[in-house]
Amino acid sequence: MADRYLSFTGTAPGRFLTRRLGLPQPAPLRRWSPDRPGLDGERLLLTAGKSDLDLAAADLGLTTAPAEHPAAVVLDATGVRDVDTLAEVHAALHPVVRSVAASGRIVVLGAPLDPADHHQAAAQQALEGFTRSLGKEIGRGRTVNLVRLTDARAAASTLGFLLSPKSAYVSGQVVEVGPQEVTPPDDPDRPLAGRTALVTGAARGIGEAVAETLARDGARVVVLDVPQAGQDARRVADRLGGTALALDITAPDAGERIAAALPDGLDVLVHNAGITRDRRLVNMPAERWNAVLDVNLASVLRTTDALLAAGALRAGGRIVATASIAGLAGNAGQTNYGASKAGVAGLVRALAPRALAEHGVTVNAVAPGFIETKMTAAVPLFIREAGRRMNSLAQGGLPSDVAETTAWLAHPASGAVNGQVVRVCGQSLLGA
Ligand SMILES: NC(=O)c1ccc[n+]([C@@H]2O[C@H](COP(=O)([O-])OP(=O)(O)OC[C@H]3O[C@@H](n4cnc5c(N)ncnc54)[C@H](O)[C@@H]3O)[C@@H](O)[C@H]2O)c1
């Protein structure tokens, strides 16, 4: 369903009218395309406090020379250790924030909170409130995110993603990157070459976009969906040069059947399949509760356990699960769905350190907000409009936005990103 309001505000009368009425002003977002893969313009590096970070190691093309309309600004605030030094955050960004280009990026770099130093922890936590507030006021399709890191090289894939059009709908996020050593891929344009990726629920919607993006990045994709969606799954697989696997993910032996279908193992497992069966709790029969918990959470736990136990995920593997902002913020009529998606976040946070230590596999989640799919096109008009506008970018996201975020987490150089739940929601007002 096309976003007519976004098209209308792009016209001169539309802009005039919506400004006069004080209505939201969504800006068309610059997304990745093969002919325009990067941001056009300078990437300015600013510093607050005394930093020990070697950002040159991450090879991000940053410049300290003043730029008239920078496409991106990176503020290295890892050296901010007390409230006084926070003034340098203001001093660095206040003069340049207005000049950042439309659809530009601001990335604040922070340090991990030091539990032994409450002044450092206060100043570093302050960066989160700063980032989220700036994200809400900056407008013009510009995003603001915070990355906590200790080693710029380990964060190169993350910074590359956040400083690109691929992260168009990711704003107001805090991502932690560990100190693990990472290996950059041989071919940066096809980072997943030689790897196998299985995406559940990939016959349509977000899953189809994820399969398409992982195939673009070089992966051999396996398109899993229920047998009833077999024809669509085969169509997607054929288009992407992959294979289709007809399987209901709630089957008790789904993990074993995936392992049997992929005897050489797999590198990327994307748990995308999900359903909604909305009702308020007072009207919700047990079948609706059980169906949602089974598809969205129990089957994710079962198949993950079975595939890890079978050693089917090769070292360097990636698991990306799908949460939802409804699971983080709660949503009326979705006690079953909210519970299932919050459960996904719990699974990710608890399993991540163990899966990395024991199997060399990272575990992360994407948490989509309002994404334009068949699922959201069926939502009644007023609720759909509220979902679209109630975020800092004042519009819905596209399946490709979730897909690009998944591709970053699946990237071979993202081995230091683990246990993160990253919202792809345009900084939704829900539970922000
Ligand atoms: N669209 C949104 O705005 C939104 C927001 C937040 C989270 N999500 C989550 O993103 C994921 C994809 O959503 P979507 O909008 O593309 O949904 P969709 O309904 O368009 O697609 C879901 C796919 O999963 C498949 N599926 C369902 N049950 C399955 C099972 N038991 N075994 C195998 N496959 C099964 C379906 O056949 C379908 O192809 C879901 O987990 C959803 O909860 C979506």
Mean pLDDT: 95
Share in helix: 25-40%
Largest sheet: 7 strands, parallel
The sequence of SSEs as H and E is HHEEHEHEHEEHEHEHEHEHHEHHHE
Q: Specify the overall morphology.
A: globular
What proportion strand?
A: 15-25%
Work out the oligomeric state of the chains in this entry.
single chain
Number of helices: 14
Overall strand count: 12
Radius of gyration: 21 Å
Distance between the termini: 26 Å
The strand order across the widest sheet is 8-7-6-9-10-11-12
Unreliably modeled segments: none
Bound heterogens, unique: nicotinamide-adenine-dinucleotide
User: What class would the helix/strand composition place it in?
Assistant: alpha/beta
Question: How would you characterize the overall build of this protein?
Answer:
By secondary structure, this protein is of the alpha/beta class. It contains 14 helices and twelve strands. It has helices spanning 4-9, 12-20, 83-93, 118-138, 156-162, 205-216, 230-240, 254-261, 286-309, 325-329, 335-359, 374-377, 381-389, 399-410; strands at 43-49, 72-79, 105-110, 143-148, 174-176, 196-200, 220-225, 243-246, 266-271, 313-322, 362-368, 421-424. A seven-stranded parallel sheet has the order 8-7-6-9-10-11-12, sandwiched between helices. Bound molecules: nicotinamide-adenine-dinucleotide.
